[in-house]
Design brief:
By secondary structure, the chain is mainly alpha-helical. It has helices at 23-50, 57-86, 93-126, 131-134, 137-164, 180-185, 192-209; strands at 11-14, 90-92, 172-173. Helix 1 (23-50) runs antiparallel to helix 2 (57-86) and helix 2 (57-86) runs antiparallel to helix 3.
Length: 210
């Protein structure tokens, strides 16, 4: 917490739902959508698991997307639900950074999986005779490990940087989930250089996906 000697904040307030005119309706809609998303992705994972005809690279990567979607829901919705029901809006700096790390890792991994799925369709259409070799199970697993590890390492750098920043201004985040840009605005140091590096990294990552 901040005090007279300028100590950095170690706790933040997520007030995204407080300003809503009908927070109960919004909360109910979010829970309903989360339930539908969990049900749909769980059924998809179940079908892919039990149906041997779906044990192909395309459905393997589709199951990865489902796992990422489920992960995103469990990262965001439980904390938001607790904050809404108990009116305890506080979240620690470590918890906020962990939420940022997990959400960004999932989001970055989803983009990479979509790129790999595009490659899978390209090989299937343009090189059908080589498809069983180029997209065999071992290759798919290696690509999946590469997706998760590369995304995690890149986002880990961001998380460590955000964790090390001093926060001596406001501790109010006008969202119901911790977001990287919102947290940077609360820092009492100049983060413009780091923001430019992140922007350049996003551009390079997008080009690499293409």
């Amino acid at each position: 917490m901040e005090n007279a000697n300028g100590t950095s904040w170690t706790e933040f307030l997520l007030v995204g739902l407080v300003h809503l005119k009908t927070p109960t309706v919004f909360f109910a809609i979010v829970l309903f959508m989360a339930f539908i998303a969990l049900l749909g992705n769980s059924l998809l994972l179940f079908l892919i698991q039990i149906d041997s005809t779906l044990h192909t690279p395309m459905y393997f990567f589709l199951s990865q997307l489902s796992c990422m979607d489920i992960g995103q829901i469990f990262i965001v919705v439980p904390k938001m639900s607790v904050s809404f029901l108990t009116q305890r809006l506080a979240i620690s700096l470590s918890g906020c950074v962990a939420q940022i790390f997990l959400t960004l890792t999932m989001g970055s991994s989803e983009c990479l999986v979509l790129a790999v799925m595009s490659y899978d369709r390209y090989v299937a259409i343009c090189r059908p005779l080589q498809y069983p070799v180029l997209m065999r199970r071992t290759i798919c697993i290696i690509m999946t490990v590469g997706i998760w590890s590369s995304s995690s390492l890149i986002i880990l750098v961001i998380a460590i940087y955000v964790q090390s920043l001093p926060y001596c201004g406001s501790n109010v985040i006008d969202h119901f989930v911790c977001e990287f840009p919102a947290l940077l605005k609360l820092s009492c140091t100049d983060t413009s250089a780091f923001e430019k590096v992140i922007y350049l990294d996003n551009v390079v990552s997008s080009l690499c996906k293409f």
